[in-house]
Amino acid sequence: MNTLSITVRYRPIRIGWCVRKDDFMALREALKLTFTMWGGRYNPIIPVDNFEFASSLVRLFRVDVLWPASADKDVKKFIEKFPYLPNPFLREELFVSYGNAELCPQLVDIYHPIRRLYEEHFKNNPAPDTTVTIYEWHAEDPLADVLLATFGAVPPIEVTGTDYLELLRRNLSAKTIILKPNEPLPEHVCNHWAISSFCHAFMRQHYTVQNYIDRPGFYVGSGSDFEDLVTFWNLRATDVSLMFFDPEQVDRLKPRLNNWLDILRSRPKGRFESDNAIAIWHKDGPLKPDVSTFGQGLLICTLGGDTWNGLNVKAPYMYFSEGSTLALVGKDSSVAPWVSFQLPPKPFDEDTRGLYRQHVVVSVDPRMGLFGNESATIQTPYVPELNEYYGRHCYSKWERNKARVEPAGLGIISDATCSDLSLSALNVVGLVKQLFSVAGIDAQPSKPGLLATRLIQQMGELQGCRVFKIGGVRKLLKTYGPDTPFNHQDAMREIGKGDPQHGFPSIQEYKHLFLEPRPKGIVLKPGDAFSYLLKRGVFRTGLEFDCPRCQLKFWMPLDDVRTEVSCEYCGNRFNVTPYLHIKYVWKYRRSGLFGRDDHQEGAIPVVLTLLQLHTTFHSNKMFYTTAMDIKPKSVNPIKFKNDKCETDLVVIVPRSDDGKINVAIGECKTGKEISDDDVYNLKIVADAFPRERFNVFVIFSKLMSFSQEELKRIRQLNNEYHRRVILFTNQELEPYFIRAYCSGIQD
Question: The whole model's pTM is what?
Fold first, then answer.
């Protein structure tokens, strides 16, 4: 068994609160429940009336669970459209009674940051440097909903089973301040905590997803406008520091406004002017806000539908804590490899009542992944539609509703007391089939693909196929067919000299290529390459005999040679020992897959293309399959030429700089022409993948140069703003590293 170092993070379950537009009652109840959750600050409010807009919020915030804020039928119908975000709990309530009449939260609650603040600042400290305040206000206050979103409030003990206000008073000496409708709001003070502070306290932002438009400042809107309140909350859920400013309540907000302006202007200066500006956020509309109140150095940020499309404002990856652990990698004879590991220490108070009933997301980042196994992977491409697939095949077929794929790994919704975890690796072919299914395409391994896969396995995985980069090796395979034996001198001649005029360079071009370990300074020789081919079973050793009776030559493998042999043509048995020392020399013939007279179904150019990508991205950043038969599913209207399509390879790079999944499909040939049908079919496949989540590239690979006619056909796949074609010839495939510039997949 091997070991593997992985990173484990603990993060909150991100709830997406589903509400109808202008349902203020549901909005208030959702916010109060959110303030009881540790990490609740990052739970978005999702108005379900506009499906496209609501769906963009679900994707942007990477919601783990959609939760109804009311019993409205439209809310329920909206949630049903996201079957890949199922309720991971056994009950339909967030606070559940388990038979002892005591309510327990289903999610980790704010008791944990309350306890941590007590331990760090209040315990045995008569003069703590931190103060905690419980704000209350009248229900008729025109800023009541703004105050709720800003200062926070919690449901009564009858709803939650926990008196959170009493916890604050008893542990943190919290004081209550009543905000009157005719009095100014209190100023922002450092080290001053309100109820709203605990739902995002002691949390960190991970580098995987960051909000680069996190400009602090003000949100200008109306405290009685539902859309303004939701937008303000969702902006703060992306970890933007904002104060709500209602122009109709200037007198009450002026002191707090000036105080917040002073804090913003006292920040350390950034490198760019925009870093130092004070952002004024407002929703797009015919009326522009009066910004004269805010002074100079402003940056106006107008919010529209495109703000939430994932290309502008982003929801950062927030987590409680992380740690590294050593996982045990094992494999049973009947199942895929698995990893098992002990979970690192958790940031939760172990004395919490009912902690085993509270849930958290255990995020597993496999880092480098599995080594030496190219048919299985523990990398999980970020496609939320595959949550159930990941849950069934990676975690548990009985608890498949608890898996949530993440940009940096796989999250498992688990109780807060879980101490260990086991995950199974995914079969690469099955995973690729699922990814194509998202695009409405049915993909199955083809016969040529199975042959190419077997060839790779015979050579000891992809890097073991380097020997086929050598032009002389390919010429040797081409010159001598499966039934044509050759001697050692023939092999040395073909491998050493090659045939430069026909695209088979001499061995001198590959003198620095490593097939196996060898001393430093020693160059690759023809004998090294031929010896490697013999070890991998590409050729078999034997002897060629002349039958004394029928005078025909026949070849016999070394394992079958004896003192007396039988002619395979006439059956004559004769003694060969008198001739061995003077007449016979070792002869070799192609063996195994290479003993077929079908050119291995064109596997060598496929293998060389995959090998070059493997060298570029390394095994920990990509996985692949060979040829796949492709056809559209019944729900997909696409149509291929001749009603079928085949791609010679599929390469997946799960993580990229833009957060999308890189997919490459390809057509690989030895010398045949790239046809119009080849280009058309691969274009159809590439266009089927959703562009907002996939970067699809099309690879055309040949062991010779492309003709002008081929280049003209292939050029149709590109346009001015969308470059997705990668071209490989022998000039790029034969060197260990790509020498010529080739635009394409970028990690």
Answer: 0.88
